[in-house]
Amino acid sequence: MDAFLQWWETFPITRLFLSFEVMSKALPIILKAFPVSIAFGVFSFVFGIPLGLGLAFMKMSRSRLVRWPATFYVDVVRGTPLFLQILIVYFGLTLLPFYRDMVVANIWMKQPFFLGIDFTVWLRGLFVLSFNSSAYMAEIFRAGIQSIPRGQMEAARSLGMTVPQSMFYVIIPQTIRRILPTLMSEFILLFKDTALLAAVGVAEMTLRAREITATLYNQSSYILAAAFYLLITIPLGRFVAGLENHLAESEGGGAQNQREPLVPEPVDAQHVIPHTKPMPKNYYR
Amino acid sequence: MSTVTTSTGEAIVRIKGLKKSFGSLDVLKGVDLEIHKGEVVVILGPSGSGKSTLLRCVNRLEEATGGEIWFEDSEITDHKTDINKMREHIGMVFQQFNLFPHLTVTGNVMLAQRKVLGRAKDEAKRIAVEQLERVGLGDKVDNYPAQLSGGQQQRVAIARALAMDPHLMLFDEATSALDPELVRGVLDVMSELAEAGMTMIVVTHEMGFAREAAHRVVFMDDGVIVEEGTPEEVFDNPQNERTKDFLGHIS
Question: Is the pTM here over 0.80, yes or no?
């Protein structure tokens, strides 16, 4: 066994990138940072959902005054690098007087809060990640809601239901089914993006791996960290693919009445209102 | 029943000078029509004549651009009118059924009863089953819409509307999306409803149904009513050239 390990370390590639010795040293450190990466991914995803839903409804508003700020926000957030957003929020917030006053008044915020990380670090990290993903989710929600045939809303309204009732009991339940795969893909992207927090010193997996690399002049800890990312992303990716297939099989990718052959919409002059297009695949990124 | 002419009761819907345009396209160019209680009015006409738009204006799925529509004692076209309150009493059946695919058949019929009329769960369920039995689907109560044929789905849609105890039913080409062999079942339900005294406005291409069930036939073309009368008058002795032309093409 020792002979094999010695032989393994004789090649530059295996020694520098796949060294068992370095990996075994790195393992406990990366393992400790693994929950940090997961927590940043999961919490910012959870906080991003209501924010994204709010933005989606704003974007669908009839009032320009409501629609315009949401559109601007989504465009700006999706049109700039997340890395820049992290730098701006992480260091920018600390320059704001009210933020400083808040931290000075609440000393506990500077103490380890969860998984050994300060509250202020959680606050800033989750802030930027959840606001970032909310912009992407807004588009997913909006496209999902608009992909429900308008007849569903009309049927609900014709029964005397209000717009909020129709949304809550008829449109949203169908939307959730439809966007679930896309939403989970968004989570995968978000989880990988937590690595960018390394740049501002958040002790997640990538930062820890970099510290080990810098100390030992060896890349193997990066490879180990990559394996931990894959541990989440591959099974989840498989699951999303399965879910997509399942939805495609059971309902033709949607929730319309599929048993009957689909009848094309009549081209009567009274049907000039354009029908919404189904959500294009990978539209959001 | 086609011997009866118009007034079987007081006017339940009064349409006065109704206009509707989509942008620069004028779809309705001044329609006057009264529907009486218990009356079955069938609206015929070529595609694009404005039949569906007229129907959709009655429960304000489309906003009229001019004229008035009165339903019972309220003006539908008045924005101060609580349209949701009005719609409780106006059932509508769509060409594409528009059942809620995430709910069972019973769930479809129960939803608005619960959320709009505020009926208790047990009562809503009892009425749902009752209405589903009425349209011949007593054995499908636990199925999902996707498990039913188009004809069955459309009958569920009728039951869903009937469960609200409507005073008026609107049928917007209810059989146009169905395979020919499924049309009969839906028309039978509609005929039964007509015989039971329901007030109905029916947009259809089913001439047989119009002849048998209608008290009055209204022929529309190019956004106006060009002819109306009993089925006999309109079918056997049409006065207007466009009506003659249309009926000639059909038969």
Answer: no
